[in-house]
Amino acid sequence: MGAAALALQGPISQLVAATQAPEDYEGSGSGEVLVMIHDGDTGSDIANTLVDQDVVKSYDAFYDLLLAQSTDPVFQPGAYQLASQMSAQAALEALQDPDSRQDLTVVIPEGTAAVDVLTSMSEGTDIPLEDLQAAAADLSGFGLPAEATSLEGFLFPATYTFQPATSAHDALKTLVDRQFEALDTAGVAPADRWKTIVMASLIQREAGLKDDYYKVARVFYNRLDPAQWDTGLLQSDATVAYGTGKTHLVTTTDAERADVDNAYNTYVHPGLPVGPISNPGDLAIDAALHPADGTWLFFVTWNLDTGETIFSTTVDEHDAGVAKWLDWMDEHPEYG
């Protein structure tokens, strides 16, 4: 009997899970959360965004609700004023309420690449994307460091509300000036802005949990120290992905990591990348200036759900961390 009950436990638990409603919050939530909907976002994309910002409790609660609608909901790109911990129904109603859409408002998350910042600014304002791209291509008038070849790294991630008829150049300068303000507040001298932003942009893309930012910074600084890492290779997948134009990824292929023609490829080019790979916020800037103390040379995020990361000093320790990550991946095939 015991063995039979044990054998049935798996199928029974799967049946219960299949018949239970997905986890969902109740009511209209509390507080304020600005959510950005982008042109081309699918229902799945929006569900993930809402979960990431704790607007809804689960992906399935919102996505299943979308599938149950008699007609496909239409969402206009832009910024929407929602609340924290809303029911899926309340979130859907809010997204379809024209009053929820915030005029001339743009939400720029930390780590967003410049190409995506421009798209978000166009979606949230009345400024044509072509005008923003043209303004971004003319670097005069922004006061950037001499090394800069684009606005990458200097578009501070935050929420912005613009006045009507703001020009593309003035809108972009608002973000640049805000990044300079962040650097000044952090105590970064103008002469050090470039190297600080390059390192911070790398930390922003590679770190997960708040406390890990400072450890990731230490790993990269240790790898820049010839006494600890003689090749000088940072071996950051995020830099390689950026150089391929895949600004939303931090994963790469063997061929991409071997590509010497990718100027951002830190697997083959020693030292910091040739430029910023994202637009970092205050935390990444602070980590670049105040790395944690440690001898770590490696890190691997072994739990992609929680962001938990293992930092190691030796190859053997790192291999053990990678093995733990691979075991976790075997248990979570949805991550591919």
Automatic annotation (TrEMBL):
Keyword Oxidoreductase: no
Gene Ontology annotations for the cellular component aspect, listed alphabetically: plasma membrane
UniProt KW keywords: Cell membrane, Cell wall biogenesis/degradation, Lyase, Membrane, Transmembrane, Transmembrane helix
GO molecular function: lytic endotransglycosylase activity
Xref: Pfam families: YceG
4Fe-4S keyword on record: no
Example GO BP: cell wall organization
Similarity remark: Belongs to the transglycosylase MltG family.
Name of the protein described by the UniProt record: Endolytic murein transglycosylase
Source organism (scientific name): Cryobacterium zongtaii
